[in-house]
Specification:
The protein is an alpha/beta fold and 225 residues long. The protein has a single domain, classed as Purple Acid Phosphatase, chain A, domain 2 (4-Layer Sandwich). The protein is built from 5 helices and 13 strands. Helix 1 links the parallel strand 1 and strand 2. The longest helix has 12 residues. The two termini are 22 Å apart.
């Protein structure tokens, strides 16, 4: 299964055309939040979703901290939302958590660590623990190469890290920290933050779609256009 992951579009619908060939080639396209910008609602997220689905119908997404919470409901209404839930495609479970932990308090979709933990637990509820899984989470886990701001401080989530260490998904796609582009690993979980799509970054991953897959990510890369 080939996955293309994008994040932090921030309303720049024109940047989607830059990756149209990559989107079209994927089995699944994942969107890890901040479709629109700073409180924009579903009417602002809809053109982003429509532009992505013009190239690939298999899209799954969560909202980011800059998206109004109504965007999360819009994604669920469209049948592509993963926040607090999961979907299984060709033997791979995709589960999600939107928003971010409380960092700056100035964006509309921030939550406490306890609330994030609840969203993550809800997303995994009922899943076979042996099924290969991919986590789509706008907020990266704490203390990794994908959650560091320019000062060197780690600003990720303890709840997200604890969930990854317990649930052990094969892959976690995150965004949020624009400066922390790269890949890392927590146990057997591959982490990737491709950086903002408006800046040309996207993630490419190949996941082995079989039950009981261990080290089931054949490739995970940050690519640029």
């Amino acid at each position: 299964m080939v996955i293309i992951g994008v994040t932090d579009i921030h309303g720049e619908v024109g940047c989607i055309d830059r990756v149209k060939a990559e989107l079209a080639s994927a089995d699944v396209v994942l969107v890890a939040g901040d479709l629109a910008s700073f409180g924009a609602a579903r009417r602002d997220a809809a053109p982003i979703v429509d532009a992505i689905r013009a190239h690939n119908a298999n899209v799954l997404a969560v909202a980011g901290n800059c998206d109004d919470p109504d965007v999360e409901q819009y994604l669920l209404d469209e049948g592509i939302g993963l926040h607090g839930t999961h979907r299984v495609i060709d033997g791979v479970a995709f589960l999600g958590c939107g928003g971010s932990r409380r960092n700056w308090g100035a964006t509309p979709n921030e939550h406490s660590e306890d609330v994030l933990a609840g969203f993550l637990d809800a997303a995994a509820a009922g899943l076979d623990p042996d099924m290969p899984a991919v986590l789509v989470c706008h907020q990266p886990p704490l203390g990794t190469a994908v959650d560091r701001v320019p000062s060197g401080q780690h600003v990720g989530s303890r709840a997200v890290r604890a969930f990854i260490e317990t649930f052990k998904p094969l892959l976690c796609l995150s965004g949020h920290i624009h400066e922390s582009v790269g890949t890392d690993r927590l146990g057997n979980t591959q982490l990737v933050n491709p950086g903002p799509l408006y800046d040309g970054g996207y993630a490419y991953a190949e996941v082995l779609d079989r039950v009981g897959a261990v080290d089931g990510v054949a490739a995970v890369e940050v690519r640029r256009v």
